[in-house]
Write a structure and sequence with these properties.
Elements: E1 17-20, E2 33-36, H1 56-62, E3 65-66, E4 72-73, E5 78-80, E6 86-88, E7 96-102, H2 109-124, E8 131-137, H3 145-154, E9 163-166, H4 170-179, E10 184-187, E11 192-196, E12 198-202, E13 207-213, H5 221-235, E14 266-269, E15 272-278, E16 286-292, H6 297-313, E17 317-323, H7 328-338, E18 344-346, H8 351-355, E19 363-367, E20 373-378, H9 383-395
Helix pairs in contact: 1-5, 2-5, 6-9
């Protein structure tokens, strides 16, 4: 959704929205009711304010707009967190705050943000105590404390002391979204929710310093999480800053670089060594490349979801599975039991895994129709997440 800047409104970043509907992506057309809609201003110039730790590649990945001084005080609110406790921006003074708006029924992009928060906490280490990831519920039908608590627990953030998922009455949630000029639209017939994907970076004095996005870039979990952690660290006073672990720049450790040509490799099909397939992408199509092994339990659990996404996305999107650890015979035998219909290839000597610098299994790369590497995702994808990311890339 794009909107025309209106003079006099609060500063905010580009308006990017996504929808949740049942199990997957919904196109928000003809929405019947508007809960809250934000009016953006022209984005501030990024300049040099995203220092000292965050680099240009991370700024781009976060789609970061740094607000020119004087920074505005972040609008305050009082809601209830997943533990039933009152929570507000003002009570978090002294902490760096990363504020988002999430749908507690979402199964696609919000769940990727949850993975990013978990990874960012790992990168922050003990410094995570100085950072709060605060999210406001965007779903007006599921506003109970139990709803945000259930979502938190089911998406791996139940033990994260610095994750706060705030909820309240529907009118309260709409007021908070409106105060931050975050677009939230709903359809009462389908209970479809569409909301902005802004990330508000608030410093320990309560000032809004920068605004980013957790759009499709958040699917590149390792890099996005590190950038988010580094930006949060940079909000802290100089004396409280510590090195942030994890990857930097546009790649975790090597040359498989985002927004650059994907490495070109040709590997033999499982069970058909004389037939080869390319990892460089299919001309004119998006290509999903998934690295897996039969000895990786998360990979085995993920494969039905990949097949589901493969069927849902259809012929415009090519899928390729890369087995990186199994003997050829065992891999072929396992492949026959998975029900996967897309091609599977063998990376017997680890050349592809090394070139793509995969950080663990499973690992998924998404390549554009022109051969550009667009996404590097460590860990599992659900069908809903993967379908959302690919469809968003297609529409972008």
């Amino acid at each position: 959704m794009s909107e025309t800047p209106t003079p006099g409104t609060r500063r905010r970043a580009r308006a990017t929205t996504f929808a949740w509907a049942g199990a997957g992506l919904a196109v928000a057309i003809g929405l019947a009711a508007i809960v809250a809609i934000g009016l953006p201003h022209a984005p501030a110039t990024a300049g040099t304010a995203a220092e000292p730790g965050i680099d240009a590649a991370a700024v781009d990945l976060l789609q970061l707009d740094v607000l020119s001084p004087p920074a505005l005080a972040a609008p305050d609110f009082t809601l209830t967190d997943q533990h039933g406790r009152p929570t507000s921006v003002s009570q978090l003074r002294g902490k760096a705050v990363v504020l988002s708006f999430d749908d507690d029924e979402c199964q696609d992009l919000c769940t990727l943000l949850a993975q990013d928060v978990a990874a960012a906490n790992a990168d922050l280490g003990t410094a995570a105590k100085n950072v709060v990831f605060l999210s406001v519920n965007a779903n007006p039908w599921h506003t109970a404390v139990g709803d945000v608590a259930s979502w938190t627990d089911s998406h791996g953030l139940g033990s994260a002391d610095n994750w706060v998922f705030a909820t309240g009455a529907a009118a309260q949630l709409a007021q908070v979204a409106d105060s931050y000029h975050v677009s939230v639209t709903v359809d009462p017939k389908t209970q479809e929710v569409t909301h902005g994907t802004e990330l508000f970076f608030i410093d320990p004095t309560g000032r809004e310093v920068a605004i980013g996005q957790f759009g499709t870039g958040s699917a590149t979990t390792g890099l996005f999480a590190h950038a988010m952690a580094q930006m949060a660290m940079d909000l802290l006073p100089a004396g409280e800053r510590t090195p942030v672990a994890g990857p930097t720049g546009t790649t975790e450790t090597g040359t498989a670089t985002l927004n650059a040509p994907a490495p070109t490799l040709s590997l033999p099909l499982l069970g058909k060594p004389s037939t080869r397939a390319s990892l460089a992408g299919t001309h004119g199509s998006y290509t999903v490349v998934n690295f897996w092994a039969s000895t990786c339990s998360a990979c085995v659990q993920e494969m039905p979801a990949l097949e589901q996404a493969h069927q849902a996305l259809g012929s415009p999107v090519a899928f390729l599975g890369v087995d990186v650890a199994d003997p050829a015979g065992a891999a072929a035998a396992f492949a026959r039991t998975t029900g996967v219909t897309y091609p599977l290839v063998a990376d017997a000597d680890g050349t592809a895994a090394g070139t793509y610098r995969i950080s663990g299994l499973p690992f998924t790369a998404i390549i554009g129709p022109d051969g550009t590497l667009l996404v590097r995702h460590s860990g599992t994808f659900t069908a809903e997440q993967l379908e959302y990311v690919v469809r968003s890339l297609q529409q972008g």
